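Minimal example, chain plus magnesium ion.
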Amino acid sequence: HAKKGNQGNVVCYTSDMEEQMTWRLGIIRQLRQDFENNKLEVWYQPQLAFSDMSLKGCEALLRWPSGQGNYISPEIFVPLAEDAGLIVAIGQWVLEQACQQQKRLENQGVEICIAVNVSVPQFKVKGYAQQVKDTLLKYQVKPKNIELEVTESVVMDELSMVIETLQDLKEFGIEVAIDDFGTGFSSLSYLQKLPLDRLKIDRAFVKDLPEKDSGAIAKLVIALGAQLGLKTIAEGVETQAQADFLKQLGCDEVQGFMYAKPMPEVELIQYIESKK
Ligand code: C2E
Ligand code: MG
Ligand code: MG
Ligand code: MG
């Protein structure tokens, strides 16, 4: 009986949506609570120069402990935090953590650049550029030692506003990278309009290297970067074959499990020591 079946589907769909909604609200409530109780962590993943494998920088990555040494993936909770507007406060906290971490390392004689991911809602806050500048001044971090990673979604949101904000930050001396390059749906024309320093080749194009199709894309991104005067960094490098391929194409830097996974500060310091 078709009609009944349809109704059945509708009811089922609605309860699924309700369940989803309840789940999301529960996660957001817990995240807000854990954030307020200072339970979030920032881990750091090393970024190395292909030329001599020296440490150039680190990417700051959020970690949300869920007990027993487990963590909820930022791939799950960052989008929820973005929807809930919570990413604005969390993102500012990550930036402050990164600044303090940068300064602690510099005081120990290790001067590297720390990259921080920035979401669309953060850019929309009035005075965002000034807030970032104030934060760096507060911790006396040199602007060249903080890099903002923005995705194509940021660029696509309100290009004129983003250009203005990034130009302001660029004049201050902050580094800007396009994250997950090539996975968004934006036109390439924004590359000419934005003050960029780096392109991050997404893991999706690194995964199958040196297989033919991904090889072609990696090659194109590296060549594009060179033409535009931008540095290129590959993320998600797990094998020597991938590394060899990227290096031979002229990719500048590398970040991946093959070299180092994201790690808390204590381990990062050990890692730096072990490289000396
Ligand atoms: P992303 O910015 O593209 O960060 C790189 C992701 O690739 C990280 O995942 C990192 O752990 C992972 N990765 C690096 N090398 C390898 C590798 O060799 N193999 C594999 N399989 N993965 C590798 P993670 O830490 O789970 O973060 C996922 C995403 O969550 C990030 O992607 C970023 O979009 C978002 N995120 C993390 N922290 C923050 C934050 O503080 N703010 C914002 N707005 N987003 C964040
Ligand atoms: Mg990133
Ligand atoms: Mg990325
Ligand atoms: Mg990625």
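Residues 57 and 112 are 5 Å apart (CA to CA). The longest strand covers residues 55-67.
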